[in-house]
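Reply to dn_fold:

You asked what the input looked like. This is it:
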Amino acid sequence: MDGTDRLSTPPVKRHRWPVRLWHWANVFLLYTLFTSGLGIFNAHPRLYWGQYGANYDAPWLVLERFPGWITLPASYSLAMSRHWHLFAAPLFAFALLAYMLWSLARGHLARDLAFRRDELSPRHILRDIADHARLRFPTGAAALRYSVLQKASYVGVVFILLPLLIFTGLAMSPGMNAAWPWLIDLLGGRQSARSIHFIAAFALLTFVLVHLAMVLLSGPVNGVRAMVTGRYRVPQARP
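and this is what came back:
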């Protein structure tokens, strides 16, 4: 049992079903995209800026191939990695679009993710940073609201980082030369888009790892239950 269960009131409704559905869909889709993306990267583990990149061009980053256990498929197969990547990418893009539209239409963005004026004061932000660094998790009514750091992280990921991954992925497709040539130019060239895509993917991985660490430290049973059933036990302050 979580410590939060021993110090909590009866469960309350926390997450609506579209949020929970999108969350668990992303578990599968992001895993598939990331591991198959590493498999695609292994075909040419170098990154460049600009339009072109080949063996004799100067890369800004050179890596060894990623090990098979972290790629999809586990053995090197560029064709299969592309197959899995292109299977998951449109599902991921349309799921994100649906979640954004639902958030706007049902007030989720304004109600749960919009910043209040008092939250943006330097004093409030510094206190929130200090509380996270000391693993002081909110209790009572405050536990039902996102902190300013959580809001900044979620808004940054959902409305900046994930769309950036989608558009840089599109820019790497040769079909964009005819469809959206402006997108490739906007990103500084196809190889620049590939570099930005790589950086954004690992930034997202960092977010996921921090998110998982916070769930484990704050009470995994309570957190996972809330994302499965929607019900959350509000932790109470210790006497």
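Residues 3-8 have pLDDT under 50 and may be disordered.
Hope that clears it up.
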